[in-house]
Amino acid sequence: MSSILTSLQNLLSALLSTITSAFESVFAVFSTLIAQIYSLCLGLFNFLLGNIVIIGILAAAFVGYTVYAQRQGGRVKGKKNL
Counting CB atoms within 10 angstroms of each CB, which of 29, 33, 38, 73 has the fewest? Predict the structure, then answer.
C-alpha cells in the first residue's frame, strides 16, 4: 500500500512540475516579447527624433536663406505664373 501512495505522490509531483514549467515558459516568452517590443519602440523613437532634428535644421536653413535674400534685395525664386 505504501508503494501505491508513493507512486501517486510522484505522479502528482510530476504533473505539478509539468504545469509549473509550462507557466514559466509562457511567462518567459511574454517577458521576452515585451522586452523586444520595448527595444523596437526605443529604436523607432530615436530614429524619428534624429530625423526631426535634421528636418528642423533644414527648415531653419531655408527660412534663414529666404530672410537673407529678402534683406539683400534679391528675389527668392518661386513658382512661375503661366
Answer: 73
pLDDT tens-digit profile, the chain (82 residues): 788 889 999 999 999 999 999 999 999 999 999 999 999 999 999 988 889 988 889 999 999 999 998 888 766 666 666 6
Cell digits of residue 46? 530615436
Q: State pTM to two decimals.
A: 0.52
Residue type, 18: T
Count other C-beta atoms under 10 Å from residue 69's C-beta: 13
Task: Please give the helix or strand (H or E) that residue 37 lies within, else none.
Answer: helix 2-71
- Please count the other Cβ atoms lying within 10 Å of the Cβ belonging to residue 71: 8
Give the sign of the dihedral formed by CA 26, CA 29, CA 33, CA 34: positive
